[in-house]
């Protein structure tokens, strides 16, 4: 029986056997990891063709994760987007609260097949870390999560969740103390402990086969969304929109639509305080091709190949690299990438909360801000699918500080809220 | 102008002819300053190093432990550029006549331009490069330019490398083979893994190129132990640590000279 939810790329032409998506990808890794990375590739290839693997994963995706994920039209939100129709792919409703679980369960099963007993992972916003800690609890695997020290502070709730699930969380104090540095530290751990350890990489970057494998585990997002939009709207969307950090939720949504030439694939990168300020993490907008974390792709770097420190209000997007397939989609023109500022994302976060009763993750709010723009460009006949990759619970501290929600419930707060409402209503006109 | 690959081979051969292993020191360029780094390298040669690897600091040194990460941070914050690395190679080679290699991650060279980098390194008198995150399958372009400019391409092999893989690597590597003594990042260790000797033997079965052992070697006793089965002993973090621990830059340079002297005895079996 073919799998319903594990649907690897049926074409199988991209990447090449060496892991290249056009000029991007490859395998730039130390010799000490070559055997382990090759083992992952071989095991994944075997698993991909093993009906038993698909059956096990399907069972988990249905009965544990809760797939298929819901597909929600958001008309009150869409009033602010020039009247275009907008549907949200609700990956936020998956168990653990984001799309990350799709990939994690696949790789956790693979870890078991490889006979490894320990899993390490990096995490930015903590969503991949929580998903990994969850799968390790489920499968009885030892779990260590590396997280930049700044991220452990701004995503403290997720640190507590990971520890509750039995994972060890290590705060990384080197470099910019964010996602990039967490990955560096995870690689250092992997080199030293590769015998019994699988590095459960959380995005579509890294050395081959990770970009292709992680994409395959997330392809289900777009496969479901494509079916759902046809059922609900009777046609394919004009645009599929997702936020892009490393790019896993975006590639998951985009991939099934790639053959549909009429569907624009739009990735929203974090512009932070504005690309012109230099304080951003808009890799495809402002980067140049280079090598970071095992593959060739666009990278934020200086003229001498030193990686520059990224910035975004969103821990999950605060990364100076990008998965190689996105670089390929950008250069081939099939994908479009635009940059969304912190402020635009935070406004979109509040707007969706107030108009639809859905609090999105700050990461996903970048896609929502992009949808507001694209909707206005398309006009009222527009039809948009947005990947709501995660829920916003983890971000309430950041949001509360940003919007001043920690006031003592005084008149000032009420006044501010009234002003907000006026602003939102004003936007609609 | 051609690079000094031949000088490197001759130097390693000369050590072998003396019935000993060569001593190879690693020191990052720009640490603690560009001029200070140059003095430290000269001191390493003066103390008895046969070969020096100059580190080109990188923002994301994923194969380095805390000691070299700290030195890289200091160098980068000091504004070290590739031009400074070239000057470090030029001045230390000119002052000593000894082989000087560059060790770095691939992205700085990729970004700088492979032709430009290899041409400048050869012109500066460099002997070659060690690029630990550029595996043999991705190294075609680099090797073409390195060969053109007379530079060695030193590949790293690891205890996890299978015999067939070792043969693939040593078939195209030049200068020497860098055998990682253990699975892990750079840094000093209490003991050098038993896997090191096994790896050297398995590597030797595939090539006549000298096999030098690095990672974790920090004192004369360990150097002597490794020298019994390897063609060269590579020491990095221990030098950097002595410099970090020194009260001032001048003392750091002296500490490098002293350690090189101790290690030079070690590789001669006089630990």
Summarize the structure.
With 429 residues, chain A is an alpha/beta fold. In chain A, 46% of the residues lie in helices and 17% in strands.
Q: What report would you give on this structure?
A:
The complex is a heterodimer of chains A (about 425) and B (about 270). By secondary structure, chain A is of the alpha/beta class. Chain A has two domains: about 20-65 and about 100-210, Rossmann fold (3-Layer(aba) Sandwich); about 70-95 and about 220-429, Rossmann fold. Chain A has 16 helices and 14 strands. Chain A has helices at about 30-50, 50-65, 75-80, 100-115, 125-140, 150-155, 155-165, 180-195, 210-235, 250-255, 285, 325-330, 340-355, 360-380, 395-405, 410-429; strands at about 20, 25, 70-75, 85-90, 120-125, 140-150, 170, 195-200, 240-245, 265-270, 290, 295-300, 335-340, 385-390. A six-stranded mixed beta sheet of chain A has the order 3-4-14-9-10-13, sandwiched between helices. A four-stranded parallel beta sheet of chain A has the order 7-6-5-8, with helices on both faces. In chain A, α10 (about 250-255) links the parallel β9 and β10. In chain A, α2 packs across α4 (about 100-115), α4 packs across α9 and α9 (about 210-235) crosses α10. Mean pLDDT of chain A is about 95; it is low at about 410-415 and about 425-429. Chain B has a single domain (about 5-265), classed as Alpha-Beta Barrel (TIM Barrel). Chain B contains twelve helices and nine strands. A nine-stranded parallel beta sheet of chain B has the order 5-4-3-2-1-9-8-7-6. In chain B, α6 runs parallel beside α7 and α10 (about 220-225) runs parallel beside α12. Classes of the chains: A alpha/beta (about 425), B alpha/beta (about 270). At the A-B interface, α1, α8 and β11 of A face α5 and β6 of B.
